Amino acid sequence: MEQIGMIGLGNMGIGLAQNIIQSGFGLTGFDLRDERLKMLEDLGGQAADSPKAVGEQSDAVFVMVLNGKQVYEVVTGEDGLLQSMKPGSTIIVSATIQPSEVRAIEEPILAKGVHLMDTPVSGGKSGADSGTLTMMAAAPKAVFEANYEVLQAVGEEIFHVSEEIGIGQTVKAALQAFIGASFTAIFESLVLGSKAGVKGETLFKVFGASGVSSPLFRNCAELIMDRKFKDTGSHIGTMYKDLSISMALAKENGVAMFTTSAAYELFQSGISLFPEEDNWSIVKLLEQIAGTEVKW
Questions:
Q1: What is the pTM of this model?
Q2: Which domains can be identified in the chain, with CATH numbers?
Q3: What is the pLDDT of residues 115-144, one digit of tens each?
């Protein structure tokens, strides 16, 4: 049985771990929080006390942490994966970080004879829990094919976007610009309709039957109208971080991002007001300005 590792057992990582275990792989994981390690053991996985200990046990390791600094540390640090992983094994960076940050770990990884996959994901907590994530994999074709079976354990739509490390993160940055701008359009349109006297149920039905209908719209609108702004698996801080990556990529490439920059500023305001809440909480800022509330 192939042995898989998981660094980071948050909302996304624990969902990936569950599906990997259910697919018949052995799994060893690490997280800084004891309660998350206990959750992994309850799922049938093995807890480790460091990334190095995970690497010792694993043929492939997913890295699902928050940012590029954390990725660099768990890969190259004193107790990092490269201290123990065997030549021919694979590090799968599924965290969303800057393209330059994943490229920065390519050379030290390859120098150890270890493979690297740049494989961010989309689909949020629900996708991680259900094993239906969209995956944007950048790696040599042979490495992609060798790890395809474990990718299938966590993803439904798996795209080999390039052999060049960094392109996976580049695709994700472009996607997050689209998603962030879509969120703000949903927030504003619902607040506009509500302020003008339209019932939320009517807006939901009409928008949902139009050309802009999507799972993104339906999930977002339902959570807003149900007034569920916490613990829904889409923390505002994560989206704010992702949009900052999109904006940095745009600056690097000289691309004008009018709607994405507006979304970024709105998320910046939202995280200042609602730092412990989820993406949908931004609608409350717009409601305060308009003097209305979006509800069924």
A1: 0.94
A2: 3-164 (3.40.50.720), 170-290 (1.10.1040.10)
A3: 999 999 999 999 999 999 999 999 999 999
